[in-house]
Design brief:
Elongation Factor Tu (Ef-tu), domain 3, 3 domains, seven-stranded antiparallel beta sheet, single chain, alpha+beta
Length: about 350
């Protein structure tokens, strides 16, 4: 390749790059204008931010509120029992099924022994009456009937002892309530556990909460909200892995499998906290804290509203809601658009920093 040819190729390449850059700018001008327009629309022009007591206050006209889609709702007072997190284990129902089968077999054995004992006792009475009535039965027949009656009575006593032993075992392992299920009362509960429609749970509660553990809600995989459970009673046997005092619960959740570990929330005692439930969409996170915005009427402008940010670090998540204390009874909570208000605050802060 000659030097002149190389120079021509270099010039041609440079020209192509210039044309490509110009085309990119020309073709992207509409997108840039659209983006700039959107940036301008993000902040309603009828907004104002000022600081009161160190906390910014966002002021918006009614038109601006509608424009950005801000919605607010009256806080509804509610009561919530103190909660504590507990570890929960899904128990295997197979031992219950096997124990119920053994109990059923023992009951049938007892019924058969009772029938045999009653029959042999009646036979002994009949033969003895014949013997005493002019020797219509031999003494040997009387002795044989008495021996059979004694054997059947012993068999009945053995069957009664075996059944009672299984009942004691059921109470020792599972407690009075489940032992009653196993022994025939509310057998449907065992059937639901055996088929997986219900699950048996063991929750490890603190010793101070064991006397009155309260209601338990568990987080079930695949479900958005915690699921309520039905209390059964104390677990007689301790769990070395979970520790604490065991409490048994039943829950209708076919998704659960034996051995699964769940997180639960346990109501503690009867002392209720007064507060309000706000939707999780009302929460915005800033500086590592959860906040909500409260709406108040603008005293200077009837067609405007003021929005103040409130720290709700003392609240807690309850399913899809957030339990917040300390709100006024008639407080209006922003349930949609809180992030827009926070953006307005931050822009105000940045502007002040630049002015400084």
């Amino acid at each position: 390749m000659t030097r002149n040819t190389a120079i021509r190729l270099l010039l041609l390449q440079t020209a192509l790059m210039i044309l490509l850059a110009w085309a990119t700018v020309y073709l992207g001008r509409d997108e840039f204008r659209l983006f700039s327009g959107r940036e301008e629309e993000e902040v309603p022009t009828a907004s104002h931010v000022e600081s009161e007591g160190g906390m910014p206050v966002v002021q918006l006209s009614s038109a601006a509120i509608r424009e950005v889609g801000i919605e607010y709702a009256r806080a509804v007072e509610t009561e919530l029992a103190p909660q504590s997190a507990v570890g929960v284990t899904v128990l295997d129902p197979q031992p219950l099924v096997e124990l119920r089968a053994r109990l059923q077999s023992a009951r049938l054995e007892l019924l058969a022994a009772q029938a045999a004992a009653n029959a042999s006792q009646a036979e002994e009475s009949r033969v003895r009456a014949l013997f005493e009535d002019d020797r219509n039965a031999s003494q040997r027949a009387v002795q044989q009937a008495a021996a059979q009656a004694q054997a059947d009575a012993a068999r009945q006593s053995s069957a009664e002892a075996a059944l009672e032993s299984l009942r004691t075992q059921a109470r020792t392992i599972w407690g009075e309530t489940i032992a009653a299920w196993l022994d025939g009362a509310a057998a449907t509960n065992i059937d639901r556990l055996a088929t997986g429609k219900d699950s048996l749970l063991r929750a490890a509660v603190r010793p101070e909460d064991a006397a009155a553990p309260g209601a338990l809600r568990v987080s079930v995989p695949g479900r958005a909200k915690p699921v309520a459970t039905v209390a059964i009673g104390p677990a007689p046997q301790a769990d070395a892995q979970l520790g604490g005092s065991g409490q048994l619960y039943r829950v209708s959740a076919s998704e659960l499998r034996p051995g699964m570990r769940l997180s639960g929330s346990l109501s503690r005692g009867h002392r209720l906290r007064v507060g309000a439930l706000v939707p999780s969409a009302a929460i915005v996170w800033h500086t590592g804290k959860p906040w909500i915005y409260l709406r108040e009427a603008d005293e200077k402008n009837q067609d405007a509203s003021e929005f103040r940010r409130r720290d709700v670090s003392g609240g807690e998540a309850i399913g899809d809601d957030w339990f917040v204390t300390g709100l006024e009874e008639d407080a209006d909570v922003v349930v949609r658009g809180a992030q827009v208000l926070l953006s307005e605050e931050l822009k105000f802060q940045i502007k002040n920093e630049n002015d400084d």
